[in-house]
Amino acid sequence: MGLLTSVAVLIISVIFQTGPFAWSEGLVDRLFRHDSVAVAGLPVVALTIWLPIAVLRWLPRRPERSFLCGMQDALDPKRNPNWRSRLPSGTQRAEWLRRCRAGALIAAAVFALAATAGYILAGKAPADAGKPLPRLTLAALAGSHGAGMPAYARLVDALPGYDQAWLRRWNTRTSSYHDYYLPLRAPGQSPIDPVAVVMLASYPASGEGPDADPPVPPLEGALSKAHLPTWMRIRMREHGFELAEDAVLLRRMALDGRMPGADDVAQALSIIFGGTLTFCCLMMAWLWTRALRAMQPRR
């Protein structure tokens, strides 16, 4: 249970860039001025998986703490004074294999259903697909504080602050990317005012970046609340702009002035990840079935 909780914390912190992973990303950025998902993940794995195991081994065993004792005995059965070393019988081992096989088959069914549901839901075109993008001004977007904010929009009066742009270089496995965070301001707005809307424009590291494809108004993209970790806000402050507390993030996209349709990428990911997990579970069930057959007496 403790290990599963640690893994869940790890996955959530990586997906939402919060908690231990956000702290680790900030540390890597301060030390190397470059981001790496793999390097940032190393201390997170140690913190969320190995640290609880080390703490359980270090804590004294107290019989009145039955829950903790169960986890400690699972890590080191010899700490239990009533422990006796004995091998499980053939019947017990067969029962354990049957339970594992049943669990693998149930997990395979769950992953297959989830992949199918994700494929179907992602393939449905939104009701407003193909309609013109909502045209918004920075004042209207900042005044709403994110309430009733459309998923996609065209900002008609936003001017990117190229002189204050923060370039974040990061890589994952063999791919490298350049993320440009640019403050967006209305014409005549003071450059020292808190930034209500910040734009994210991503480019492959092998490309020419905004010099070849500069973001010019009107700007189109996906809108969301700027839930950025503290270390990112600090880095933006170092480049001369301060994010407002309820700032909005515009992820630049080429939408040609129309609301996007079905997400083909989400469909592909549903099939790839769901199919892979289903296949792995079926393989484990097949291996446990073979182990059960090998235990049967030969005629």
How large, in whole angstroms, is the Cα Rg? 26 Å
The count of domains is 3
Q: Major sheet, described briefly?
A: 9 strands, mixed
Instruction: List the secondary-structure elements in sequence, H or E.
Output: HHEHHHEHEEEEEEHEH
Distance between the termini: 42 Å
* Beta-strand fraction estimate: 15-25%
**Can you count the beta strands?**
9
Low-confidence stretches: none
The helix count comes to 8
Overall mean pLDDT? 78
What this model shows, in words?
- By secondary structure, this protein is an alpha/beta fold.
- The chain has 3 domains: 2-86, no CATH class; 89-124 and 262-299; 135-252.
- The chain is built from 8 helices and 9 strands.
- Strands 1, 2, 3, 4, 5, 6, 7, 8 and 9 form a 9-stranded mixed beta sheet that branches.
- β2, α6 and β3 form a beta-alpha-beta unit.
- α1 crosses α2 (19-32), α2 (19-32) packs across α3 (37-58) and α5 (90-123) packs antiparallel against α8.
- The chain is elongated, with a radius of gyration of 26 Å.
